[in-house]
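During the no-cost extension, the postdoctoral fellow (Dr. R.K.) reprocessed legacy sequence entries with the updated structure-token encoder. One reprocessed record is reproduced below for audit purposes.
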Amino acid sequence: MRNEARDGGPGRVLSSPETECRSVTDLVEDRESSGSECTSTEPDSESKPNLSDTIPDTSQDTPQDTADTEAIHMSDSKPNEERTAGGVEGRALRQNTRANIRPGHHSRTQSRCPPRLDEYGFLCDDDDLEYPKCHKYFKGCEVDELVEKKWITLLEDDQWTKHQTSAAKIQSYIQKGVPHCYRGRLWVKLLDVEMLAMKANFSYKANVVSMREQLVELGISEFQFAESLNVLGNLRDDLPLEGQENNSTSHFIDPVTLRQIFCDIERTYPSHKMFSSRCQGGQEGCAALFRVLSVYARYNREVGYCQGMSYIAGMLLMQMSEAEAFWCLVALLERPKYLQGIFGHSLKKMKNYAAVFKKLLACRLPVLTKHLRSLELQPLMFLTPWFMCVFAELPCWDTVLFIWDLFLLDGLSTIFQVALAIMQVCETRIMECGDLSSLLPVLLHVSPDMCQYENLVPVLLEIHIEPWEIKSLLAVISEEEDIRQKRKRILSGETENSLDGDAKRPKMQTSGESSSSPSIFRRFINFVTGKTEPSQKPAKRTHTQRLLQRAHSERVTRRRHAQLAATGPSSEEFGGTPGTPADGNAHHNRAREEFTFRMFNTPAPVRRSQGRQLALSHSSVHSPEIELEPMTFSSQDYDH
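Re-encoded structure tokens follow.
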């Protein structure tokens, strides 16, 4: 009976290898269900469990794994009557169990589970990010088989050439939804990159090889970001820059530009499988993004690299091959229809676009504009990331893809439409903000409930902005800027003249003076014929010069009248004897002279709106150089 009991006979229900193994398995499964999303299958009671599939892997010495392993050892070492009665076989099984959980052992079920991804390739467990993505997508934008067949027919070369000019037809297709597998082909055809690559005298592959040669000379690699950043930080001040006489470095990219590219790649779509370090292809995706950006820095040396380009290039790499992504990036940044000049170092075009948006917002949402003006919020504060990244930082990715589809079809006007739609959707929350500190986060990081597909896209489709509206507003803004600069120059010139005591104002030309002296031949003809040189048309005068001349004419007229009233004409002035009045002919000549003087020297009547300006200019602006001497009359003036 003892042997029967030792062997687990019918006399007693004792511990067997199966029950011993099940106790260890239960502990392991409890740990897995609490700390991991990977599911494990419980062992069947009828089949013998496999220890290699159930023993945890403790190769990575984490505190949690160490604690769990110690708990398993403690459970095995507890004095138990059933375990002790197991005999030699139970002790051998426990020894094998302890051997299997030693550090360094690897198992199939305890290998690292791949991260969960959504339908667009973003990590679902991205709560560690400051602004995670929204993974609840709109089900209404899913493409059915009928729409997919229409896209296949449309993207054929013959059909695309036929409907290429029909933007309304393509937009109707986009509103029904674009299949993920055909979005790259659609973007390539919308940007016409095949023709661009054929016309350009530039080879992407050859420049990748040349760029890698530069990296080898610098001692860095496109796959090692941390080491490359350290090397570039030490060498960027010692390397010769482009434009020097050394031919070996004439095609080099600026080390500062390379360092900036390396820094921005780590911040570009960190939760997407193509650029995340937690996914298998993350390193190669980051290297491809570096190659595209660095080759574009060689393609356009005037612009080089600017922050925000990494988001555009990363978006393109998600949809197409590396070479196609490069030429699409060139088309977006070099064509006026899209983002030409927006990445300039002075950001002048971005400032003009912000001024255009300010006028559009005042026209469409006047109440919101008044509130923003009261908070002293400038549109440039929140429009810069929207324009430079083309709304790629929005948390709802289905909305972002729809925006990009319309943007590549219609161009820059789509960005203004989306910006107005966001302002309209977020109007209630913006009106609740009382200062800039609470308002800027609402606009810079739009909440997921505001930019979801079913909330933002219907508002976006109701807003229509034509390209000619943007061009007209840009022309108005340019003209206003020119007028503003002219006023600044005039005010700065008057200020300098008023501060400088020795500086003299140039003498204004009267109506009888000529801007240029006549030629010698003209002088001789005038001398022979007795004609005088007619006054030429004076140059265009400013408003200040006209006011000064009008005040001067009034002073001369008043002085003339005062002289005539104080001392009447005597016979001495007209050739008569002293004390005798002048003859009638002399009086006639005098009256005719006064009439002529008044006709040509009396200023035009002053409007009421100019009266105050004229009085100010007369009282405050006094120039001794343009003051005329009192006029005296003699008999010689009337001899003829």
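The two ends are 166 Å apart (CA to CA). DSSP finds 30 helices and no strands in the chain. The remaining legacy entries will be reprocessed before the final report is submitted.
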